[in-house]
Design a protein that fits this description.
By secondary structure, the protein is an alpha/beta fold. It is 47% helix and 17% strand.
């Protein structure tokens, strides 16, 4: 009799644990490319916040910055019947059909660096896109003494937020620094270290008087800085853009990278999970509310966009603090 009772108790406990596990929200976050320091830091944030929130969340990093690889990763998450999909898109338009399928399957969608993303429940931005571009241009122009030729790199020509940053920066230059001139077209190389180095070498050969590079994309400033350093041009060419502090610290110390502004990618990873938790709890996201990691936010319910205002300067003084944080 006792054995029967114990068996029933164990069975009930096992069923309870199973039900609890089944109730756990499952979330996959597809980033632009796996293995680089920026998205490695984001993955740490996802895991840390998932443990706090009690959400089963993980990061998927494609082997290359290819929208087709992101499509396949999202298709796999749909097949797994996850509750929420997070994405940092390489191409917002290319992802629309697969995000539509996810949406129709009842999966919630959160994007980052993709304002106005179709089929997203929410997109979150750590800083206003236009202001972020302008801040970089002001710093670049100061370094260039407001005169000379400069080039613009983006992670991809199809990344919406990179386009906004670059558009705002170039427009500000045209309105405020008439003696500066952009050379060539915009170069979509800045998520690839090798492509950025190659492009920078080509531009230095083609434009011997090149004075500046605005490199938007996680590997852009690193590749540009290495190329400039190898050519002995650290005193002649200013390099600005967002990058992972630990990866770029030595280049900043050598003067090959002059600075830039970033948000903390680890915090961005936390926010994917934090916002997912808010959605699942039915918590309303409203203009002016305070979200941990973003501060007081601007919320556009029409475009489903949440905008914060949290950036860090990547200068020689502030960089050691960021590196110590593990970024």
């Amino acid at each position: 009799m006792k054995k029967t009772v114990l068996a029933c108790l164990f069975a009930a406990a096992a069923l309870s644990l199973s039900a609890h596990a089944a109730d756990k929200i499952r979330m996959g976050v597809v980033v632009k490319v796996g293995g680089n320091p920026w998205f490695n830091a984001m993955e740490v944030g996802i895991k840390q916040e998932a443990a706090k929130e009690g959400i089963d969340a993980w990061q998927v990093g494609p082997t290359g910055a290819d929208p087709a690889l992101q499509v396949r990763a999202i298709e796999d998450l749909i097949a797994q019947k996850v509750d929420i999909i997070g994405v940092v898109p390489n191409d917002a338009k290319v992802l629309e059909p697969v995000l539509k399928r996810a949406h129709e399957a009842g999966i919630k969608i959160i994007t980052h660096e993709s304002p106005d993303q179709k089929y997203a429940d929410w997109d979150f931005e750590m800083v206003d896109a236009e202001q972020h571009g302008i801040n970089h241009m002001i710093a670049l122009a100061k370094c260039m003494k407001e005169t000379g030729n400069y080039a613009v790199y983006v992670g991809s020509l199809t990344v919406p937020v990179h386009k906004r940053w670059a558009d705002a920066a170039v427009k500000y230059q045209q309105e405020h620094y008439p003696n500066m001139h952009q050379v060539g077209d915009r170069f979509g190389v800045a998520e690839s270290l090798d492509d950025t180095i190659r492009t920078t070498n080509d531009l230095m050969s083609k434009y011997p008087d090149l004075k500046g590079i605005l490199a938007i994309g996680s590997q852009g400033p690193i590749g540009a800085g290495r190329a400039v350093l190898n050519r002995g041009k650290t005193d002649d060419i200013c390099v600005y853009g967002p990058f992972s502090p630990g990866q770029g610290a030595s280049l900043v110390r050598s003067g090959a990278i002059d600075g830039g502004f970033i948000w903390n990618p680890m915090v961005a990873g936390e926010l994917f999970v934090r916002i997912a938790g808010m959605i699942e709890k039915g918590q309303k996201i409203t203009d002016g509310m305070d979200i941990e990691g973003m501060g007081k936010v601007k919320v556009d319910e029409t475009t489903h966009t949440i905008v914060g205002n949290r950036t860090e300067s990547l200068d020689k003084e502030n960089l050691p603090k960021l590196v110590k944080m593990g970024l």
